[in-house]
Specification:
Elements: E1 12-16, H1 24-47, H2 51-74, E2 78-83, E3 87-93, E4 99-105, E5 110-115, E6 121-127, E7 130-133, H3 140-159
Antiparallel strand pairs: 1-2, 2-3, 3-4, 5-6, 6-7
Helix pairs in contact: 1-2
Length: 163
């Protein structure tokens, strides 16, 4: 694998993270609202003599809270793409903080959008028979935009044009 020259300035660098439309604070408020409604309905059922239903309604709120917790844990993952004249480095960071690095020589590197079905694509870096999927958490438009940007920047690197 090629070493990443430290003196060389990056031609392109981006940090990619999953987009979450709801903040932790918003999720907490939503769970509290659902919990309030569930508690009032649970008390209503309890007063009617259907007390086992109240317990199951509490389980629903606990499961909703746990689902949000898992969602926000998964959102901590990300990727860093750093392109220099001779090397593209992909650093993948898992939700648990584990780092994995891939280096590609820019001359041989291809950026490919592989169709999965009629509407979805997989963005892949390909070099010497090795393929690595990047940005699986991005939407289709963002993947196409990233692919186009990477192709343009790779062309600059290969032709020795000023960045």
């Amino acid at each position: 694998m090629p070493r990443l020259p430290r003196t060389e300035k990056p031609v392109f660098k981006t940090d990619l993270h999953p987009q979450r439309s709801l903040t932790r604070r918003g999720a907490r408020r939503l769970v509290l609202c659902v919990g309030g409604v569930t508690t009032s309905l649970g008390l209503l059922f309890w007063s009617m003599g259907a007390w086992p239903i109240a317990g199951f309604m509490g389980v629903d709120v606990a499961l909703l809270s746990f689902a949000f917790h898992l969602n926000f844990e998964a959102a901590r993952c990300g990727e860093i793409i750093e392109l220099r004249r001779s090397v593209l480095r992909l650093t993948r960071i898992s939700a648990r903080g584990k780092r994995e690095e891939f280096d590609f020589q820019t001359y041989w590197l291809q950026v490919v959008l592989k169709p999965l079905d009629e509407t979805r694509h997989m963005l892949v870096l390909r070099s010497h028979g090795c393929e690595v999927e990047i940005a699986p958490f991005l939407g289709e438009e963002a993947k196409q935009e990233l692919a186009q940007t990477l192709r343009e920047k790779l062309l600059i690197c290969r032709n020795g044009l000023p960045a």
